[in-house]
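Supplementary notes for students who missed Thursday's class. We covered one full example, reproduced here. Read the sequence, then the structure, then the short commentary at the end.
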Amino acid sequence: MIALRPLIDADAPAIRRVYSGATVTFLGRPAMTSQEAEDYVVRVREWAAADPIEQYVLGIDVAGDLVGVVKLGRRPNGHGRVSYVLREDCWGRGYATKAVEELVVFAFTTAGLGSLGAKHHPGNPVSGRVLEKAGFIRLGIQNGMVEYRLTLTKCRIRRRYLVAGGYLSSRVASVRCPCAWLSM
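Structure (token representation):
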């Protein structure tokens, strides 16, 4: 079971492990240094304190182990961009799919967005499968990346949310308000 949660200062070493090894192959960057990881966590906490929040970055926590992050960036006209990165030793366990599904629910409910986009490197088809499992539709290749889109009306998670009458779990609900981020 995964939980999405705000990052805390103590997460810097885990963030460094996430952004290292084969994980950075398709990110267009080298492995993160310890200082970069510390700076990243500080930046993420500043973004979380903003009003309004334009960039959500949530840790993917598995039994107390931070194994990755999911990101939701606000764009104009009720659109958001989703991205995610998972530590290499956690690939193939369904964590990315579950995290993206949780983030989609958060985006369409709490964040109030109407559509989402995402992309991945063409050499990383597994990332595309994560998006498709979460309901995203492949649009094609644009600027060398495979682009995807998901709208509220086409979101299978939306049905689950409505049928369940509150699918949004307490794990995600705990980050509804910027004040929840500040208290971490």
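Commentary. The radius of gyration is 16 Å. The chain has seven helices and seven strands. If anything here is unclear, bring it to office hours.
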